[in-house]
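Inputs:
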Amino acid sequence: MSLVIVGPLAFDAIKTPFGETDKIVGGAAVFAGLAASFLYDNVKLISVVGEDFGDNIEILQRRHIDTSGVEVIAGGKTFFWSGKYHNDMNSRDTLATDLNVLADFDPKIPDSYQDCDYLLLGNLTPRIQIDALDRLQSKPKLIVLDTMNYWMNSALEDLKAILKKVDVLTINDSEARQLSQEYSLVKAAAKIAEMGPKYLIIKKGEHGALLFSEGQVFSAPALPLADVFDPTGAGDAFAGGFLGYLARVNTINFSNMKNAVIYGSAMASFCVEKFGSQRLETLTQEEIAGRIQQFVALSRFEISE
Amino acid sequence: MSLVIVGPLAFDAIKTPFGETDKIVGGAAVFAGLAASFLYDNVKLISVVGEDFGDNIEILQRRHIDTSGVEVIAGGKTFFWSGKYHNDMNSRDTLATDLNVLADFDPKIPDSYQDCDYLLLGNLTPRIQIDALDRLQSKPKLIVLDTMNYWMNSALEDLKAILKKVDVLTINDSEARQLSQEYSLVKAAAKIAEMGPKYLIIKKGEHGALLFSEGQVFSAPALPLADVFDPTGAGDAFAGGFLGYLARVNTINFSNMKNAVIYGSAMASFCVEKFGSQRLETLTQEEIAGRIQQFVALSRFEISE
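Outputs:
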């Protein structure tokens, strides 16, 4: 049994009010993979990089992540994204998006990945998400799809096709409103459920996350932070932590889903503490356990009457 | 022992995407008073109305609220506010603000109100809040102040003076940022604590509320609602429910404060279900108990490892 993540590996150049970076390692697969690796020990990646990615793959291998599904294109250049965050850290401008080898990404599934029980289809062209899923010989126990407004604008039919095949969708609140054409998130959740996913997670950044399923709803807080250093990858770290927890407990029900949302939120809260994947690279199990206790303290109340 | 609320009584005319009202009863004192009356049975109001308010005072008296501190100005006209909510229900345009008798509001404290242990200084000119507090012969056990950005812009020195004298401040997130000049709510809370209030409640509407005190933080969810019919008064209903709960349990600590935030959130969630104070007028204890259980289900998770 394994947890497989399909998603981009990238170089990112990031400007925030706290500083800026040259090209550092990024991409959904890095953030999700690192986050998942702290909760589950058989994590495998499917991605593509250019020859320039070089030794950076060791960031993943040091966390015992299987990278045999990461294709290296000889002479190719790795996907590059550059962005600048505004003072509120909630909005950003994209300065550059050079798809490079990602433009022709054709996901290949090593035979050793066919034991996949937990699949994360990270934010990518819906067509590639469909191809990756079709190439698995048996349907995973749980499929999580992450996507964004860009694909709702440019590839809505493919997105609707993959939505029919997944169990969990993670998007943010404005994307939920766009996809459903409903302002109320309760109504949005009901409409999105009709599109396929049994579980919907609406990510609200500093306002936490909502989990909807079959008339039930759970509200997870976000940890109030003194400093958000770099929001890049927080949503991917959330998805990795979420699915890593579920793979570990290996039982799908609403109660475990709620806990998984808390673990995802915890991993996202670490991610934003440093630039890029730096914080996730150095995380310890003790720090994670402590952060989970912070989430318990943050949200627990006891009304006795 | 009593719970005293100082705040405006008003006529409101409201337009929302769901409809519009002629002049209906409104004002912070109505919403806060009604909400508090379901949780504590000795609620007293200090306010001012014009002769045109007439029998509307019975809305409060039917809930056994003491209105002997509501001054009626012969020949005067009651404060009138009119607003139009946008489709997102989070932003609104003010169409009219006719202060009328509120312009010369000089709060008078009946002798029978001098048993006040719990005081809510509803959203008003800070100068009037100071006067009301000064006219109480003994300091209440707990003083809650509600205010808004308008007073930060127009009466900051008076606001800072009253902040030094109160225990709890309730404001929204953008107001917390404005008052503290800090974007991070954690840093904002630390700065505002230095201004006086031991407890800070940051109201975030559909995103819930945060309670800060002495390095502790609690995040209360908002109940996801299919329809928000009219947001007017939600913040006042929150404050009334919050203080009503604390008066009932009559012990001030962080644990009770957390519960009080949940009760306040529950009363706010009822308030928005109909126009004006209609929903609060017809509420039952059974409905409140059921709503509290919804908040428990919404936020409870059990991580055993």
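Remarks. Residues 254-271 of chain A form the longest helix (18 residues). The interface with chain B takes residues 87-89, 183-187, 204, 206-208, 210, 216-222, 224-228, 255, 258-259, 261-262, 292, 296-299, 301-303 of chain A (CB under 8 Å).
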